[in-house]
Write a structure and sequence with these properties.
single chain; about 60 residues; mainly beta; Cold-shock protein; YdjO
Length: about 60
């Protein structure tokens, strides 16, 4: 599909499994499939992480 007048193709948002930092001072998160660890630690503050589902842009 062609888009004109500098309009960009709309980005599709999908529900995605992510790891989210449990620390109140940190807002770190990462997609679940970006970690090789069974339960990864936060790459920003090294705290524990928990699984969540977020609606984020789809990666192609």
């Amino acid at each position: 599909m062609a888009f004109f007048n500098n309009e960009k193709e709309p980005v599709k948002n999908v529900e995605t499994n992510v790891w989210s930092c449990v620390s109140d001072d940190c807002q770190g998160w990462m997609r679940e499939n970006y970690s090789f660890d069974e339960e990864p630690s936060c790459p920003i503050c090294q705290s524990e992480m928990k699984k969540e589902i977020r609606v984020i842009p789809e990666l192609k």
